[in-house]
């Protein structure tokens, strides 16, 4: 039974505001944006710091730590939340753990080793190795000497035998390890005052505020079961079994995504969702330049956000992704930075004719990006 009906436009505008992308610069100096509860992926030259800045956060990463969590990607979290995050981003059960590490699970299962037990072994070894900051490659080399088949694989690109990548990354926070900011290759270190979780508590006991399934509906209202499963790399059965009790079904008119799968929102969000966009929009446009891996773009129902297949293909390409120009929820184009010797050029690719006030707003955001990078915008 459908509990509410909304429009596609209302839905994307509500997501935009739920991500707090409508907040002016510097308005969240004393409080980080809410999306930090779910983690802000730090990929690309601007990464998490830019994603937080365009949500009103103060410059810098004070009070934040960087950890490999969902999908094995580096995400920024509050230092004070790391203990809860280690629980929330752990698997729900062994089948979930096996799905999250992909092909690395097959040899473990074949050898009769429970996947969570295997991940715990990796985390214990990582903890004993990283007693001081170490480059990832050095940790991997030492770990390879301590573990045998079925933990290891032959890596053709590296021309070497080492641990599978996803188990290595996903075990790190369980070992109480985080990443040094702005290091490439990444440097791993122990997080201050964080005891290693070592999979002692799984995601079934996660704090409601950090539960990864619930937070997907919180920040991507209107999501389907498979959207959440894809985002987490989790089995869809696990997702359905752990679906929030207060999630209600919503129908979305103008939704041209294939299939007739149910979409859901949290019951507390229904009224705000239905009201989104009802007010007259006579003020200046709310335009933001989103980085390629901004949380707003990490959704899995991409057809809902961008209906044109060619635009989707370009925006979410595997290599060399552009950023997105978003206007109060709607993506209206893409952008690419061209930086050299302290100068920045921003290449804009609008997907439709833009009004003069929106062009002015884009130019203002380009200036904001240049100031963030501490370079001079030249065009």
Helix % is 25-40%
**Main sheet attributes: strand count, strand direction, barrel closure:** 5 strands, mixed
Strand order, biggest sheet?
12-13-14-15-16
Structural class: alpha+beta
Shape: globular
Q: Ends: how far apart?
A: 53 Å
Radius of gyration computed on alpha carbons: 21 Å
Mean pLDDT: 93
Number of strands: 16
Summarize this structure briefly.
By secondary structure, the chain is an alpha+beta fold. Helices cover 35% and strands 20% of the residues.
Structure description:
By secondary structure, this protein is of the alpha+beta class. The chain has 2 domains: 4-204, no CATH class; 287-377, no CATH class. It has 15 helices and 16 strands. It has helices spanning 8-18, 47-53, 82-88, 94-100, 105-110, 115-129, 136-146, 165-174, 212-219, 225-232, 236-241, 270-275, 302-305, 309-315, 356-373, and strands spanning 4-7, 40-41, 64-68, 74-78, 134-135, 152-155, 160-163, 177-179, 187-190, 247-253, 263-266, 287-290, 323-327, 330-340, 343-350, 376-377. The strands form 5 sheets. It has a 5-stranded mixed β-sheet. The protein has a 3-stranded mixed β-sheet with strand order 1-10-11. It has a 3-stranded antiparallel β-sheet with strand order 2-4-3. It is globular and about 60 Å long.
